[in-house]
Amino acid sequence: MLKSMTAYARKESRNEWGTVTWELRSVNHRYLEPLFKLPDNFRDVEPELRNCLHAHLSRGKLECHLRVQLEAQSGPGMKVNMEVAETLNNVLHQINRMLDNPAHINALDILKWPGVLEVEELDLEPIKEEVLAVFDEALTDLVETRDKEGARIRPMLEERLIAIQGIVDRVRDRLPHIIERQNEALRARFEDLDLDLDDGRIEQELVVLAQKADVAEELDRLETHSKEVLDVLDRKEPVGRRLDFLMQELNREANTLGSKSLVTETSQLAVDLKVIIEQMREQIQNIE
Q1: Where are the alpha helices (DSSP H) in 81-124?
Q2: Average per-residue pLDDT in the chain?
Q3: How many domains does the chain have?
C-alpha cells in the first residue's frame, strides 16, 4: 500500500485538570526526521514519543507540537506552614520587646521567610499518560491520512504507466517505417552531396546507421521498468526510494531513445515520455 509523506493531524483531549492538544505535520524527506516542540515539564516523554513514531513511520519530516493548558484550580497551589509562621512571629515579638524602637511586624516579611510558604507540586504523571495517549491517537489519524493520500496517488501512477506502454507500442509498431524513412533521408543526402558511392557502400552505411538508431533494447527496458513499478506498488513495505530509482532508470531510457532518434516522430515521442516520467517522479517524491 502506498503511503504519502504529506499529511496533517490534530487531536485534543479535555480533562478536569486542563486540555492536551497535539498537532502533527508531515512532509517528504529522505529519512524519518521528527522535531518535537514540548513544554519544559514534558521533555522527559520525548524518547517514548520517538519510539512510537519509529514503530509507525519510516520516512518523512515531522513537526510535533504539544500544548498543555492547565485549569487555574489544578495548577501548583500554595500553603502556609502555620507552625513555622507562629514560631517566627513569637520570636519577632520577643526581639521587639528588647528594642527601644521596635519595628512593625509585616505579614509579607513573614511569608518571605524560608519554610513559611510552601508550594505544592502538581502531579504530572497522569497528565503525561494523557499526553502519550493523545499523541498515539493523533499519530493514528496522521497515518490514516497518509494512507488515503497514497491511495489517491496510485491511480495517477497507473494511468501514466499505461501512457508509457502506449508510447512504447507505438514506437515498436512504427519502427520499420521509421527505419525506412531514415534510409530514404540518407540516400537523398548522398544524392544532394553528389557523392560517388556504389550501392554496396551505401547499403553498408545504411546498416551502420540502422544499428545506431536501433531502439529495441531501450523499448524492452522501458517495458521491464514499467512492469517493475507496478509490482513495487503492491508491496507492503515503504517503496518510495525504489520507485524513485525506477524513475531514474525510465528517464535514462527515454533520453537514449531521444538521442538515437533521426526523425521528428520518435523525437517527439521521447519528449512525451520524459514529460510523463517527470509527472510520476513529482508524485513519487511524496511516497514513503
Answers
A1: 82-98, 107-112
A2: 85
A3: 3
